[in-house]
Amino acid sequence: MQIDAMIPMFRKHRVAAIWLFAPKHLSDFASWAREIRAVSDGYTQVWIQVGTVTEALEVMRLARPDVLVVQGTDAGGHGLRQSASIISLLPETKDALEANGFHNVPVLAAGGIVEARGVAAALSLGADGVVMGTRFLAAEEAGIAKGWQNEIIRVDDGGATTKRSTLCDRLKEIVGWPEHYDGRAVTNKGNLDEEAGLSDAENVRMYKEELKQGDEAWGDHGRMVTYAGTGVGLIKQRRPAADIVEETSAGALNILQRYARMANSKL
């Protein structure tokens, strides 16, 4: 990212927070954070996303983010090729932060969380909050293709029907992602053809041809890219974004209170 090109925007607008991830080198975070804070007079919070314990510690030493987002491998879209699910990544990261004197940074959990049970689990693991991405692809306000949104609702068994690879970027002819990043998306005809030996050139040609079909190019035998996390199978309907937030928050609170009552009854 060329942060210099964005500085005028940060000067013009009082941005509440900027979320950074996927640098070519972790040291980039330090310069990005420094320039953002300088141009905003410290007003803009710097949120940084990491995917390993090692990254988390190095980022804290280099950039001292206001918020640390810990993303597990279940996340949809781009992330580290090699990571762990938040069930082990989050508590290990929290322990490492504490052991190294980083006591006060809020830590958010991301990756595979789409509803109340996932939120309650993440909070129990030590998260200060959670991030949901895939769930909001099925929000009524989501500005994505209808075919993509239909796939989010159709697909189930997300651990088996989504896959991490670089194919999506190759099909879209997108370059620039660090080599240690790939993306999780719903497995489609492009994946199956690649596994059968189809060349990238032919796969790209067929992808571009199907683009002309619009929303009809998604589905069981489609080639369109459907970025989604492994929690996609828990999403069954479109909902207003506000309802998703309210229902998820209330549901998580109910779960935590129920288990608290169960624990108290046994004391």
From TrEMBL:
The record's annotation in Gene3D superfamilies points to: Aldolase class I
Kindly indicate whether the keyword Flavoprotein belongs to this entry.
Answer: yes
Alphabetized UniProt keyword annotations: Flavoprotein, FMN, Oxidoreductase
Q: PANTHER family per the record? A: 2-NITROPROPANE DIOXYGENASE (PTHR32332), 2-NITROPROPANE DIOXYGENASE FAMILY, PUTATIVE-RELATED (PTHR32332:SF34)
Q: Which domain of life is it from?
A: Eukaryota
Q: What is this protein called in UniProt?
A: Inosine monophosphate dehydrogenase
* Pfam families, A to Z: NMO
TM stretches of this protein: none
Which GO-annotated molecular functions does the record name? nitronate monooxygenase activity
